[in-house]
Amino acid sequence: MSIAKPLRLGMIGGGQGAYIGNIHRIAARLDGEWQLVAGAFDVNPEFGREFARSQGIDDDRSYGTYDEFIAGEVAREDRVDAVAICTPNFTHYPIAKALIEAGFDVICEKPLTATLEDAVQLENLATETGRFVGVTYTYSGYPMVHEARVRVARGDIGNIRTVQVEYPLEWMATAIEQKGNAQAAWRTDPKKNGRGGSIGDIGTHAYHLAGFVTGLKLQFLTADLATFVEGRALDDNAHVMMRYEGGARGLLWSSQVALGNSNGVRLRVFGETGSLSWYQEQPNELIYAPLDGCVQVVKRGAENLSEDAKVRTRTPPGHPEGYLEAFANLYAGFAEAIVARREGRAPEALGQNLPLAYDGLKGVAFVEAVVDSSEATEPVWLRPIAV
Ligand code: NAI
């Protein structure tokens, strides 16, 4: 049976003034694969309904809470095909659990949950029920990140020796959480954010990116967390040393106080015969440095790129693509994976190598091990439970 497109999307959170919900809506629209038809968009039901109206959502599919959303959508023949969860971290688990138990496929924001216990339970639930759970690790949507992954896998840089990955931000360099910034307020509240501050918020992106491109499995880590802004309850700077299976070493830096960095995600992978570097503020380029010293700038859209990069590219080289297109690649991939599953076939390239529940669990386990390591009185190397 072939499935009709566009797929119907529901959304929890992402209401007026929220950040990532709007990025989800743009990304979902870009390729015409999804149509937003229902939602419970705000923690305040009234605001949520008002926002739904502004988005052209029918009143009978605008819900006050996620429980009402589930009750209303389950009863419909044209129920949503998947639900995007765009709420603060501590709500991901109860919302995703309720949706999965009601039979919905889910697209969940990272980190998957605020606690490791919740992440384990959610991943188990996804496996047991067979529901699709995609996790929006944005940086794995970029075509040149896929190109890097393919090049590492086919041996272009030989065995990996060292991985350097960083995610520096500057927006929390002062105590904006004490001055009414809603996004910073929940991110610095351990009950709402989870135990890891910068490491949970953006370190999880960096950790996923490094593992995604290299395929390396983390064996042990040791970490040093710092809180530089006075009165803040969670780390705003993290350094993590990593030992991968097979002997490669890694260093991860996440920071919310790195002045001069808007969104400086950077990955560098050094192998025995070459290196690859990618920087998200120049996302259309991948730098390849082979052993002979002839450094190459590999451009998105170039002819000889991998199929994995090509299927995630929309415009010719020179016309910049970026963050929104990368996010849209995740949405197009989720659509392909969901449809392929229902049609009983293997997904095409776009629907492969997607971040799923287990990747989400790995991220939360990483955060847990980082915080445990940093809190230990003596320096300690720890092994995250999910590697
Ligand atoms: P935000 O604070 O801007 O927005 C949260 C929204 O969720 C608000 O509209 C709020 O009213 C709503 N909400 C809260 N509880 C709710 C509930 N029980 N039911 C319905 N709506 C509810 O937060 P932001 O920055 O958009 O972050 C949301 C999530 O997205 C977080 O988990 C964050 O880590 C993640 N995120 C991911 C990014 C990525 O690159 N993939 C980038 C930024 C955030």
From TrEMBL:
Q: Name one GO molecular function term.
A: nucleotide binding
Describe the location of the Gfo/Idh/MocA-like oxidoreductase N-terminal domain by residue ranges.
8-137
Taxonomy, superkingdom: Bacteria
Q: What InterPro entries does this protein's entry cite?
A: Gfo/Idh/MocA-like_OxRdtase_N (IPR000683), Gfo/Idh/MocA_oxidoreduct (IPR051317), GFO_IDH_MocA-like_dom (IPR055170), NAD(P)-bd_dom_sf (IPR036291)
Boundaries of each GFO/IDH/MocA-like oxidoreductase domain copy?
A: 146-276
Which Pfam family, giving just one, matches this sequence?
GFO_IDH_MocA_C3
List the signal peptide residues.
Answer: none
Official protein name in the record = Oxidoreductase
Q: Report the source organism.
A: Thalassospira profundimaris
